[in-house]
Amino acid sequence: MTTYHIWTVGCQMNKADSERLASGLEQLGLSECDDPRSADVVVLNTCVVRQSAEDTATGMLGALKKCKDADPQRRIAVMGCMVGPTTDDLRRRFPQVDAWARPQEFEPILKMAGETVGIDPDGCIRELLPADPKVATFIPIIHGCDKFCSFCIIPYRRGREVSRPIDELVHETEMLVERGVREVTLLGQNVDSYGHDLEPVHDLADLLCAVNEVDGLDRVRFLTSHPSDMSEKIIRAVGELPKVCENINLPFQAGDDDVLERMRRGYTRDEYLRKIDEVRSIIPDVALVTDVIVGFSGETEPQFQRTLDILKTVRFDKVHSAAYSVRPGTIAARQHPDTVPVEEKKRRLAELNALQEGICAEINADLSGREFDVLIDGHSKGKLQGRTRTDKLVYLENSETFETRIGGFATARITGTSPWSLRAEVTATETLAAGDRLRVYSA
Ligand code: SF4
Question: How much is the pTM?
Answer without folding.
Answer: 0.91
